[in-house]
Amino acid sequence: MRNLDCRWHWVRDRLLIVLPPLFLAFYLAIWGHWLLTVYNPRGGYPLGQDFSYCWSAATLALGGDPGSVYDFSRLAALERAHFGVNPLLPWLYPPTYLLLLLPFGLLPYNAALAVWLGTTLGGYLFIIRRIAPHPRVLWWALAFPGIYMNLFYGQNGFLSGIFLGGGLLLLERSPGAAGFFLALLTYKPHLAVLVPVALAAGRRWRALLAMVAWTAALILAATLALGTHPWVAFFSHIFTAIKKVEAGGLKIFLIMSSVFSSVLLGGGSVALARVLQGAAMFLAASLVVWVWRRGAPPAISYAILVLGILLFIPYSFVYDLALLALPLAWLGWDGYTRGWLPGEKTCLVLVWLTPLIAPLLAQAAAVQIAPLGIGALMYLALRRAGHESPSPAPAPEMQGQGMESSQPG
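Above: the chain's sequence. Below: its structure in token form.
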């Protein structure tokens, strides 16, 4: 049995070296196939599919009536005129996000998309590298399936990673700046809702006050720039928009990654989905409060918060799984520097694959495993929180050393 274990560790550690270039080649092949067989610049699916909706919203807002972005018929008409597509969902974001998008509406679409993905990806990679300062981390980050999903959809997962990861990285040495970044995360309010809970549980009062103050400032800035009409329209239409998501049918649920959508995808009722999602929300909030009150090491506390957010939100999509890179980096770096617990490296690799496997399995078998991957990573973080020093690990050499360790994993 020991020989089998050694062979598995040898195979796994070799995979850690070859997987990133293999996945990058795979993504390039998929992109090439899509461009040759599906992409049609005169109609159909535009490059960065979902960003076309953001660009259309910014363009419509710059036309003089920002509140009109919440009128689904007007936004859909603009999408059809520019891209030849029929959008499935209304605009779901608050005016603060619209404020951030306005500059992109001044650019031609392809230029706006390039700037959007280039700047947000650069910031996202910078955050991952700061969390885990190892030479190979950028390779693993670039090959991470969550990056591919976000690039393909032209979505905002990188932006969420910058705001959440940047805020948590600054929390220890600059609570005011941390509050600013965490306030920016409210552009997607459901992603931010557990953050003040964690800050209060961890008695991070300066960061919490800064987050509240900067959130108020962002709301004021959006109101001054766009007027009050967008806010009225947002609150008037948000519940209707949520109902449209729930009634979106199989096509929507295939790319969602929450407990709520997993139940619906499997044929369960909306009522059952709400009950089980409520249980997941309670569990996620409870674990975040427990870990932050307990004063676990920062890497563990931060990983638990990000995982709690992903488990908490009912309307999450596969591109939101770009956030998984944050706990993967924190837990991976903690294992690399302090020693691995049994099974950790294997589990981290499997969860790293989740943003690719989850939508494929959803398409093939109507089964969504993303919550299971998030739960597995949550278990690893909680187990690590209970070990002050998992095993005696030598101080890592930052250069000229692989991600491998002699510790079991």
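The radius of gyration is 21 Å.
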